Amino acid sequence: MESVIYSAPSDHIDQKWTVNDMIGEGEKVAVRATNSCMQSSFLGIPAAGKRQEFTCTFIFHFVDGKMVETWRNANDLGRMLQIGARILPPLE
Questions:
Q1: Alpha-carbon distance 57 to 70, whole Å?
Q2: What is the rounded CA–CA span in Å between residue 20 and residue 59?
Q3: Distance between terminal CA atoms of the chain?
Q4: What is the pLDDT, as a whole number, of residue 49?
Q5: DSSP character for 79?
């Protein structure tokens, strides 16, 4: 099952969302998805043309058929490491 979750910022090139799971109960819908994209940078880190792939979970809250809240949890650290960010130990 594939679906667009939101429209991409202008610096996204060749972006694809794949919806892996979707579960709804009451006023909420939970979505587990995978994103594959090319982007010029992420959180200020140049991507240098590297493809990024990461998972993300969204919870959407609907009232009267309209989305009123969204929660997002994504593997942003994994994404930063894919484009070359490094974790360094603290300086002593």
A1: 10
A2: 14
A3: 50
A4: 83
A5: H
